[in-house]
TrEMBL record:
This is Myosin, light chain 1, alkali; skeletal, fast. The keyword Calcium applies. Keywords: Calcium, Metal-binding, Methylation, Motor protein, Muscle protein, Myosin, Repeat. Belongs to the calmodulin family. One of its GO terms (cellular component) is myosin II complex.
Amino acid sequence: IQPMKYVQPSLNAYGTPRHSEDNKPFLPLSLSLSLSLSLSLSLSLSLSLSPLTTDYKEAFGLFDRVGDSKVAYNQVADIMRALGQNPTNKEVRKVLGNPSDEDMAGKRLEFEAFLPMLQHIVNDPNKGTFDDYVEGLRVFDKEGNGTVMGAELRIVLGTLGEKMTEAEIDALMQGQEDENGSINFEGKPSSLSLRSHPKWYPIPYRETFS
């Protein structure tokens, strides 16, 4: 039996070893693991020190009805909307991995898994803005005076896009209609202006008005 011989690996121009098979430079395993760990720790530290992340975590905790520091999949959309985002239910299911209806009701999510999903929604370049809502409502402004009829808006919210229930529409419209049944959607904010009503922000614009 021939004794095993140690073969000195070939070096590239920078003095680092090459793979014998494909002749590509590589990092030693220990160094690769060290770099990966350092990057992970840096990312975790930056997230944990972010004031916004603290606020997000507090809001997340308000939806924890069990006390296990988790929320149900079907609560994720509401949490994101409570944090000022406007994702459609379809978009939320996509970032969750397109779970089944059973998983939406039964599975639970930790904050550490929720945060990257929220960041994906926040950084979406195509998300609707409040001005987009106003432009969409102008379609129903027949008088050109910055108002829409509440009855017509109820029909739109209940029949187009991700349809709202009658109870949701009633809660949304409460206190918004004047004596003529009209709603002010632009101009100076007032008690009848949608600009001053926080309940309007969660409505998925693209699925309703686009």
